[in-house]
Each structure stands twice: as structure tokens, then as C-alpha cells.
Specification:
Elements (H helix, E strand, L loop, with lengths): L5 H4 L18 E4 L9 E3 L2 H19 L4 H8 L7 H12 L13 H16 L1 H4 L4 H11 L10
Antiparallel strand pairs: 1-2
Helix pairs in contact: 2-7, 3-4, 4-5, 5-7
């Protein structure tokens, strides 16, 4: 068994569950393979996995009106599966905002990048998160915010 976290192996550093709402994500290859209980999406590239993280954060804002780190992370990592309080604190600290401070709408690239980096670190651990290049993070965030007209990457 690999010591690399599933989120990194699957190019899904946010550990996004596979399901009807995620099948249409750009670069989604389906559910993970080679594990006893497949649950998470696999993506064709790290940038597409990061794009999915950003797109979900945007959906949480638009569809559910979640505009704070606490709101976003409580939906992302519900208390029945996670230590959501610790997760909220870690993401708020990394984004340099209070857990209940309203985030700007729409999320600027700098804020989205801070949130994405903190989610990746919390989901995979600091050592594994360090395996993801700045280029992949920047590209994924740009794709999530529709700042990049090249929608598909090799």
C-alpha cells in the first residue's frame, strides 16, 4: 500500500466524494481504484482536482449562501466525519481571516488560493501537500475562477 495520501494519488487533494454532482467535473475519471472502499473522485491532473475544489467552494457560496470559513468548511467537512472545529481554525488561520468573517464575493484569486492551500494541507498533511507544485495550484485556481480560457489541459 502506498504511503502517499489518497488525495494526492487520485489528483483530488480536496478528497471530493464521487457522485452524481461530481461526474461532470472537468477531468473527472470516475471513482478511485485499487482501494477496498472506493469513495473519492479521480482526476486526470492535479490542476483539474484543484479546479474542482475551487468550483465546489464557489457553489457553496452561490447555492447555500456560505460566505465564511466556518460555513464553507462545515459543509466541506461535516462534524459527523471530521473534527470540523480544528479544520475551520486551520483554514481561517492559513487564510488570515476570522472563522466568521465574511469573505469577499466573488472570491478573489488570492483568497481562493489561500483557502485551497489550507484545505489541501488539512486533507493530506503538510508533507504531502508540499508535493503539489505552485504551478498546479495557480492553474487550478485560475480554472476554477474562469481566469484561464484553456479549459482542458494535457
Amino acid at each position: 500500500m502506498s504511503t502517499i495520501p489518497r488525495g494526492i494519488r487520485n489528483n483530488n487533494p480536496g478528497n471530493i466524494d464521487y457522485g452524481p454532482g461530481t461526474k461532470g467535473f472537468v477531468g473527472c475519471l470516475g471513482v478511485e481504484q485499487g482501494v477496498s472502499s472506493p469513495r473519492f473522485c479521480r482526476f486526470d491532473s492535479m490542476a483539474h482536482g484543484i479546479r474542482a475544489v475551487g468550483k465546489l467552494l464557489g457553489t457553496y457560496r452561490r447555492k447555500y449562501g456560505l460566505d465564511t470559513v466556518r460555513g464553507l468548511i462545515t459543509r466541506w467537512a461535516p462534524p459527523n466525519e471530521n473534527d470540523t472545529g480544528a479544520y475551520v481554525a486551520a483554514v481561517a488561520r492559513a487564510a488570515e481571516v476570522g472563522p466568521d468573517d465574511p469573505l469577499p464575493a466573488p472570491l478573489p484569486a488570492l483568497v481562493m488560493t489561500a483557502l485551497v492551500r489550507a484545505i489541501i494541507r488539512h486533507e493530506n498533511g503538510a508533507q504531502a501537500a508540499a508535493l503539489i507544485s505552485d504551478a498546479d495550484i495557480n492553474r487550478g485556481v485560475a480554472l476554477a475562477l474562469d481566469l484561464d480560457t484553456n479549459r482542458r489541459i494535457a
